[in-house]
Amino acid sequence: MSNEVYITKSSTYLPNGPVSNDEMEDYLGLVNGKPSKAKALILRNNGIKTRYYALDKNGNFTHTNAEITAKAVEGLFDDQFTKEDMQLLSCGTTSADQIQPSHASMVHGVLKPSHSIEVNTSMGLCNSGMNALNYAYLSVKAGAVNNAVAAGSERFSAWMTADKFNHEVENLKLLEEKPIVAFKREFLRWMLSDGSGAFLLENKPRENQLNLRIEFIDFYSYAHELEACMYSGSEKQEDGSLKSWAEYSSDEWLNQSIFALKQDTRLLDEYILKKGAQSLRASFDKHNLDPNDMDFVLAHISSNYFKDGLREEFAAVGLDFPVEKWYYNLSEVGNIGAASIFIVTDELIKSGKLQKGQKVLLCIPESGRFAYSCAVLTVC
């Protein structure tokens, strides 16, 4: 017999203060010593007004990803649940501080409870946070543990500082090419943010407060149909395949920004919304759900550019959610990848808008090679 699983507490950690659009290059630096020509256009389209960086204006890092994650997890601890009560820690991120050891192991090391616990790390892109949540959810549901902490986090700023791109610019100069960073690389400098969010999952709801019961979490991948759209540690080839960093020389790692996070914006525009609608329709059919029963729709989007298009694509497959049901915070906190859905859910929980019996729909796209997840939560 499986257990019901409840989100009994949520937490967000955003490092330092909000950074305005005009301040971004004060923190990230100037590539080739010049202001970006693409920045204004990208910001106008994505609609992000402020974001957070684990950086100061001197380019010094103020937090590691593991420390950012630990801060969100610590926000879950109280008189009813201390770090000594934690049985499982499941963490998802795109931007771990190192290739090995695992990110969750590093977070466990920062938290330093007095006991050994099970740790799980999910690596990938935006869905890595939901993968981490799913592992925690299934562990509690199966009765393997009574509680689990799931977290999503990013420290993208460390990938986006100007020095990471200057080697490529110098190489382009030597080749007498136009000395700018390719748009597919620069695009993401103005999209991404740092931060973390965490949920406490338990097999019983807490009394005298609102809890969110997880009804299901579904995942869909379209990698069998589509090539990679967002990638790092590799370079896309003419046939759409990815050539691994391990197949390049160490000089090429710098000159071609092999480790930079890149986005094929052509593929993004063509498929991200269409496949998102297809996957969500499949979940609604699988669980025999009525879209009218959803009270809040929390869709992770990378840019406000996609807002209207996403609603239209959903409506085209019979999922016509009224505008007033959609809940976003992208403009205020930026795109925090694997952490975004945790953070917006935490904000909704603390907004005072939720009432018992309401249903919350979570939708998370991942453009890496077009993977999607969704979940339904019931307020109880």
Describe it for me?
This protein is an alpha+beta fold and 380 residues long. The protein has 2 domains: 6-213, Peroxisomal Thiolase, Chain A, domain 1 (3-Layer(aba) Sandwich); 214-379, Thiolase/Chalcone synthase (Peroxisomal Thiolase, Chain A, domain 1, 3-Layer(aba) Sandwich), CATH 3.40.47. The protein has 13 helices and 15 strands. Helix 3 packs across helix 4 (103-111) and helix 10 (265-286) crosses helix 11 (307-316). Residues 169-181 have low confidence and may be disordered. GO terms for molecular function: beta-ketoacyl-acyl-carrier-protein synthase III activity. InterPro entries: ACP_syn_III_C, Thiolase-like. This is 3-oxoacyl-[acyl-carrier-protein] synthase-3.
Compact overview of the structure:
The chain is of the alpha+beta class and 380 residues long. The chain contains 13 helices and 15 strands.
Topology diagram in text:
Layout: E1 6-13, E2 19-20, H1 24-28, H2 39-46, E3 50-51, H3 65-74, E4 88-93, H4 103-111, E5 118-123, H5 127-141, E6 147-155, H6 157-160, H7 163-174, H8 183-186, E7 194-202, E8 212-221, E9 230-231, E10 234-236, E11 242-244, H9 250-255, E12 262-263, H10 265-286, E13 296-299, H11 307-316, H12 330-333, H13 340-349, E14 359-366, E15 371-379
Parallel strand pairs: 4-5, 4-6, 13-14
Antiparallel strand pairs: 1-7, 1-8, 2-3, 6-7, 8-15, 9-12, 10-11, 14-15
Helix pairs in contact: 3-4, 10-11
Number of helices: 13
Structural class: alpha+beta
**Strand proportion:** 15-25%
Multimerization status: single chain
Mean pLDDT: 93
* CATH homologous superfamily title of the largest domain: Thiolase/Chalcone synthase
Calculate Rg over CA atoms: 21 Å
Strand order of the largest sheet: 5-4-6-7-1-8-15-14-13
Low-confidence stretches: 169-181
Tally of structural domains: 2
CATH-scheme architecture of the largest domain: 3-Layer(aba) Sandwich
In whole angstroms, the N-to-C terminal distance is: 21 Å
Strand and helix order: EEHHEHEHEHEHHHEEEEEHEHEHHHEE
Number of strands: 15
Shape annotation: globular
Percent helix? 25-40%
